[in-house]
Structures are given as C-alpha cells and as structure tokens.
Amino acid sequence: MSNEDVSFSKYGKAFQEGLAQLIIEDRPFCDQMEEVLDVSFFELKYLQVFVGKVFSYRERYNIHPTKKIFASILRTELEDSNEAMQKLVRDYFSRMLASRITDEAYIKETSLDFCKKQKLKTAILKSVNLIKSSSYDEIKTVIDQALKLGTDNNYGHDYIKDFEARYEFKARDPVSSGWKQVDKITKNGLGKGELGVVIAPTGAGKSMVLVHLGAAALQSGKNVVHYTLELSEAVVGQRYDSCISRVHLKDLVSMKDMIKETISEVEGELIIKEYPTKTASVNTMRSHLEKLKKRNKKIDMILVDYGDLLKPTTNYKEKRTELESIYESLRALGQEYECPIWTASQTNRSGLNAEVITMESISEAFNKCFVADFIFSVSRTVEDKTTNTGRIFIAKNRNGPDGLVYPIFMDTSNVKIDVLDNLHGGHEVHKISPKSEGDRLKEKYKKYRNINKGTT
Fold first, then answer.
1. 118 Ramachandran zone, left/alpha/beta (phi>0; psi -120 to 50)
2. pTM to 2 decimal places
3. Under CATH, domain 180-455 is a member of which superfamily?
4. What is the 3-state secondary structure (H, E, C) of 359-396?
C-alpha cells in the first residue's frame, strides 16, 4: 500500500487544515475521529503535532480542550519539537482562530469515510491470517469492531468531557438596531439566534421599522436578507433607498443618480425576496437561504415582513396555535443560521388608538410572546401621524430591562425613525408602573398558560 493511499495528501492543504480545526472546535466530531484517525494520515507534519496534542490532552484529562486552554498548551508544551516546527504549529493556530470553515459537511464526511475505510482494510488483512486458523468467531468480532468505529456518538453535552466548554465565552455577535437607547438595554442589539418582534396596528409603520433595522445593519457592514409577504421587492428596495439616502420617497426617481452613488458606499449586502401572502412557510425561506449559502453568501440578519403572513408547516385547527408554531419555527431558523431574526405582528383593535401598546394588544396568538427574545410596540395616534411623533414600548427584553416607554420621531416620507430620550425636546423615558401594567401582564400570562394546560 503506497503512502498516498494512507494519507490525506490528495485532498490538499486547505482540507487538512480544516479537518484539524474541526477536531478542536467540534467535540462530538473529535470523539468520532479519535476512534479511526491515525495522525500520520496528515501529510503536513505540523498538523500531526497539532492533532496529536489535542488527543493527548483528551486522554490525560478526559475532557475536550477549549481554544483558550489549547493556546496555553502550545506556548508551553512543544519542547519535543524543533523551533521551526513550533513556529509552524503556532502560526497555524493563529490563522485558525481568525478563520471560519465553509465546507464543514464535506470535510467531515470525506475524512470519516477515508479513516473508516483504512480501519476496515486493516481488519480485513488481519482476517486473512485468521481464516488460515479457522477462527471464524474472531473474524466476525474483528470486522464488527471495525465497522462500529467512527460512528456518530454524540449524545449531547457530556458533563465531564465538556466541562471546559461550559466556561468558554460564547459570543452573541449582536447586530445594532441603529438606536443607541435600544442598543443600550439589549447589550448592543439582537444577538445570533434571537428573535425580535415589532408590534403595531395597521398603518402604524411596521414595515418601515423593519426597513430601518435592515438599513442600520447594512450600514454597519452586515449582510441582510429581507423577506416581504405584503409589498413588492421594488417597493421595499425603494424604502431602503430612501432610508439610507434620506431622499423622500416621492423624489426617488428624480434623485436616482445621487441615490445610486450613496448606496454604492454601503458595506453590507441586501437580498430582498418577495413571496405572495400565505404561500411561503419557514421551510420555503430555509430553502432560499440554503441557495444563498451555496453561493457563499454570509447571512448576518433576516427580516420577515411579516410573520403572521407566513404559511404554517402543519395545519392546525386554531389560528393561535398556527401562529405560535410559525414564531417557534422562525426562532429555530435564527438558531440554525446563527443570526438574529426580526419580524412584525399586528395588534388587535384595542391597539388602534392606544397611546402605549402593550402585549395585551397582540393579535390572536399571545403565545408567540413566549418565544421572542425582544418585543417592542409602536403606537401612533392620529395626532402623532400629523406631527411625526409616537412612542415605543419595550414589552419584553431577555437581555435587559423592559416596561420602558420611549418617545420617537417617525417620518414615513423618507423612512426616518429616531428613538428620543430626555435630551430631545424635554421628552422623558417612562417606565410603566409594575403594579398596574406588570400585574396585568402576569395575569394575562397566567390566563393563557391555564388555557394551554386545558388543551393539552
């Protein structure tokens, strides 16, 4: 058997470096590879040393190393290698920390298949000698053991082996809302896998708010996918043009050249995808996102205008159950793609002329409030619309305080939305009394929990 037959040389340097990175980043995958991988399969010597150190640490301490711990190991435990090799290993580790694997599924499948075949070949060669001695039971044992090696043995978070992982810093990678007041109470915006919901009555500007959130992300260099189930792609695109350039919607055509020049300086990328109302489900969007992923499009934020207009993946008798399942699926989508998702929800009639809209005014499915990480409402009376004013109420916030009411400036003619504080025209930030509003919301939660218990 030639050396090329038993090494990863034919897959190239990028493949081998990606495999070594996955071995330290993905503990369950490392469990599989440790059973079948011989470090000599790596063509590159510095990767043999690197992976060997990972396996040695796991064997010695029975836990998987974190990157922070491994950095210490590479600083202090490479004395058995010469200086040139030490530098190669440390340089690789530095590059690895700054890189992200894009072909994870291919590397895992290919490397596991290669290693398992080598183990099976070894078992077959051993069986040849056993045939001569008619040791049939032993042959079966040898082959069965070889076939079991490298199988998926991820049973979840191992309390002992994953001890270090529990204390490793997990970055939220929040995306700014574009409002310093909101960013302050949400720890710099909505984080990856989190769901934000904008609640407003019809005509209050839910779609405008979503465009503002998308434009703020774009201008900070993020890539945004905006799904529209109510407006056309062109209309949504024009709203982004107006929001970013500050040109009024009615003047977009006459200012087209200036707008094009302005948006060309935006660092992020925007994809707007339109689906007719109630024809697209979360699975439809997932399929679209997979196509973008295959084109190497990084997705930093998803906007859905709006969630209530999505088609459920399963038919339910009651609309409230249907809507609840949609919002649960949206949050799962954000967790899957590791990015924040913003959507909107319509209030019931009680929210039409309310000065402050609470979660009590949410339409149909109150249970979608349980799923969301951040919820704020937008309320604008008839007078507010004539004076470009209004209020937002922070109804729910997993990462900070809620119950706050902020005055806003909202000009829908050029999609300009500002959250104000006490420095703007004497406005004050208010907090709704816990006794009046908080108790009422607790009663509301209790009521809906009791209803759910009665239906299960």
1. alpha
2. 0.63
3. P-loop containing nucleotide triphosphate hydrolases (3.40.50.300)
4. HHHECCCCCHHHHCCEEEEEECCHHHHHHCEEEEEEEE
